[in-house]
Amino acid sequence: MPGSEETLRIILDNITPLGVERVDLQSALGRVLARDVVAPWDLPLFDNSARDGFALRSADCTGEGTTLRITGFIPAGCNVSEPVLGGCAVRIMTGAPIPHNCDAVVPGEDTLETDGQVTVMAPVRRRQYIRFRGEDLTGGDLVLTEGTVIQAQEIGLLASFGQAVVPVYRKARVAVLSTGDELIELGEQPSNGRIINSNAQYLAAALREIGAEPILLCIGRDNRESLKEQLQTGLKADALITTAGVSAGARDLVRDVLVEVGVRQMLGKIEMKSGGPKAFGMKDGIPVFSLPGNPLSTMVTFEEFVRPGLLRLMGHRRTVRPNLKARLREDIRKEPGRVHCQSVRVEAENGRYMATTVGNHKACRLSTIQRANAIVILPEGPSVVAAGEEVEVHLLRGDLVLLEEPNLTAGCVPDDRVSEEGETFERRVRVATR
Ligand SMILES: Nc1nc2c(c(=O)[nH]1)N[C@H]1C(S)=C(S)[C@@H](COP(=O)(O)OP(=O)(O)OC[C@H]3O[C@@H](n4cnc5c(N)ncnc54)[C@H](O)[C@@H]3O)O[C@H]1N2
Ligand code: MOO
């Protein structure tokens, strides 16, 4: 029976990136660069001024207090060809090209100006306040390597080289199949026995968060015909996620129908609570993840197993969430012999990370994970992991840094939800979760 790490390895080993497409620069945000980018020209492309001031020849400034005649003005965007004569200077703006025979710029604040003349009040060094051609990057330099995730900084860099179209790995179109006779769609009225298909909405949002394109299929009902029809539709996408219908119930048919439609299963049962993929298979290069139906288990399983797999499908190299060691603030009870994944709140305290439980972790409870910023991995063996023990946590959200900011407690307001059973986490934590 594979452990959770081995399960993730099997998933990642079976998935290879989708093909490459060329998109306009802004659409490349968040995508993975599919080719190396080489500088087509020098950056900067010409010597230019780093200050608003005067361009001159340093040899003309024999001592402090040298006075030069102002013979011109070079604003940014202007093209200069005239040399500057001996004993002269030209007014120049930041970013403007330097006349070819000047070798220094003096900032305006280091000069005195009277009657068309400028007196230099500070010592002048050769090359001062000039940004030289190619000092940032030289034409032919490797600018970005294949596999880089394109963020705003990369967009700026690519734009400065005129790259209006960028080769990136394809976005994954991911079909989501929720199964169960009890499910109704968002917008319908829940009644006794019928519940809203919230998993599909969660998955659609979680897929968008990682830059994938969700395709929500019709709800699969608990009979072979309905499941077969929806699975076949789902297999036209780049990846398929199913939820529910995979445990021991008389109507848990998903596993059987997956085999019927030709999905080759790559995993056995995984002993993990909550969640863990109930099945993972491949058909013609399309990964198929079968998730448990309980909403919290769906979320934990997506985070721990599906998200890394889909990131790899879209060309990402770093697919796993940041992984930290934290100390438990209180004892956590668990079932011996199974790895447990639970949502927790991690805070930095005196240079250490502390993990606090955020409520009951029953797999059907959605309120718990919403307060968490991490998933704790509790080891297989013991029935209790004691307060103070070091555990592995996987960060879910980027707000850990916010928790370290001073005066975090200043904006605290009481919150009645905190009095729920078993909750010991501190009030101030909630400020950052809003
Ligand atoms: N005899 C056994 N029963 C169960 C076992 C077991 O080992 N033996 N495992 C339990 C655990 S743990 C889980 S998790 C579930 C997994 O079952 P399924 O994945 O087949 O899911 P269902 O039973 O159909 O549903 C579970 C639960 O989740 C609700 N659900 C389902 N789909 C959605 C959805 N799209 N949106 C919101 N909520 C959903 C469903 O109504 C059920 O309450 O099995 C346990 N039982
Ligand atoms: O394994 Mo279930 O997936 O605990 O919630």
UniProtKB/TrEMBL annotation:
Its EC number is 2.10.1.1. It catalyses: adenylyl-molybdopterin + molybdate = Mo-molybdopterin + AMP + H(+). Residues 175-312 form the MoaB/Mog domain. One of its GO terms (molecular function) is molybdopterin molybdotransferase activity. The keyword Metal-binding applies. GO terms for cellular component: cytosol. InterPro entries: MoaB/Mog-like_dom_sf, MoaB/Mog_dom, MoeA-like, MoeA_C_domain_IV, MoeA_C_domain_IV_sf, MoeA_linker/N, MoeA_linker/N_sf. It is an enzyme of class 2 (transferase). Pathway: Cofactor biosynthesis; molybdopterin biosynthesis. The keyword Translocase does not apply. Keywords: Ligase, Magnesium, Metal-binding, Molybdenum, Molybdenum cofactor biosynthesis, Transferase. Its cofactor is Mg(2+). It comes from the Bacteria. GO terms for biological process: Mo-molybdopterin cofactor biosynthetic process. It holds the Pfam family MoCF_biosynth. Gene3D superfamilies: MoaB/Mog-like domain, MoeA, C-terminal, domain IV, Molybdopterin biosynthesis moea protein, domain 2, Molybdopterin biosynthesis moea protein, domain 3. Belongs to the MoeA family. PANTHER family: GEPHYRIN, MOLYBDOPTERIN BIOSYNTHESIS PROTEIN. Catalyzes the insertion of molybdate into adenylated molybdopterin with the concomitant release of AMP. This is Molybdopterin molybdenumtransferase.
